[in-house]
Amino acid sequence: MSKEEIKKNIKEYGWHFLFVFDPNGEHEDFSYSIGLEESFDHPEIVIFGLKKESAHAIISDIVEDIKSGIKMESDKKLGNVIGGNFEVIFKPIKIRAYKEYLGTAVDYYDKPFRAQIMFWPDKSNILPTEDGCEVTIQNEALTIV
């Protein structure tokens, strides 16, 4: 993905979507936005463990909320993000993890920017940040927040 393609999407849509997968299956798939910081003064959004289409749909919905003035605050349970009665929580990513996980965004911005992971719950509405969560495909994300 070239910097020009990313710029074009940000100019047209306000953001760019990136899906990252490990063909060897050693790391969880994840997706993230590029351009939210630039377009909306909002941290980039990262989601682990969802299929490309699902992650794109969720980030697209979040971007629409951001455009209407809603901020996805860190460290606070939020409803009405993924639908149903489910809650999510956003946690900032440690700066030391940016290059490894957000390399394309690091190259694009070439300056400091903010990013946060959206953790989504299991069927019992328990988040991976809480004891008893049955969803384990976000465990890798817990190590970088």
UniProtKB/TrEMBL annotation:
Name assigned to this protein: DUF4262 domain-containing protein
Annotated InterPro entries: DUF4262
